[in-house]
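Pipeline run #58 for the internal structure catalog. This entry was flagged by the ingest filter as a single-chain record with no existing model, so it goes straight to prediction. Upstream metadata was stripped on purpose; only the residue string is passed forward. Reviewer on rotation: M.T. Logging verbosity set to normal.
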Amino acid sequence: MLEFYEKVQELLAGNVPFVSVTIVDTIGSVPQNAGSKMLVVEDGLLFGTVGGGKVEKRAIEEAQAFLTTTSRKPVSEARPEQPSDDSDLTIYTDSSRTRFVNWNLNKDVGMTCGGSVKLYFEVFNTHPWNIAVFGAGHCSNALINLLVNLDCRITCYDTRQEWLDRLPASQKLRKILADQLPSQVKELAANSFVILMTMGHTSDKPILLELLRNWETTSFPYLGVIGSKAKAVRLKQDVAEAGLPEEYQDYFYCPLGLPIGSNHPQEIAISIVSQLIEERDKHRP
């Protein structure tokens, strides 16, 4: 059992989407006892068992389907509230993170066993908070050292390997060395919070313009550029000179972060994280 929870912690730390499946009750002849557990990822069974054979195959398929389900389901799926033990029941909770099934192994699964099994499914990490940071300098380092303590996935891009190497080692962080940072825009995960913190205006500008040029097809819930109010004026001029719609000048934060603290990298990082959390919560259902 200890190994099961160690695997859970690894998946949580790595922000890997997975489903935990637990047998909560059994009646009659069944392959495994109540309390048996398994972990299922997108590719299939990762660890544990809930019985093997057909019941496990179906449970894995149910878990994999669950990983791709994002819409909310009605609580009872229009089924009786007090089903008989031989009914094929699936209950979806309002949070859409848990699922309970009651299968008759003979009728619902096609096994020769005459018993029934009740399984509890719980999904994790299916709505990751993706944060993309362009630049691995001092402020980025301070920022990322805070972010790795939160429930998020971080990708940092830079042209300098030595600066990427200074970032913390974490399963939540990917470090990408790239010669041309604007070319990485097309690689950004959907719904990423995007932060530009490169060496200055000269290197931030082409990334910002690349993001905005594709805004109609790929927009992001948060886009921020580190810098002063003077830099913000210059960036808005850049957007206008690039021939982009005037409203695009308001699609990014600059300066970024909440108006708190000093210019110390650690305090800048705290102000940015505060703003990221504030914006994240605005986009939550």
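catalog note: The mean pLDDT is 86.
catalog note: The chain has two domains: 2-124, 130-282.
status: ready for reviewer M.T.
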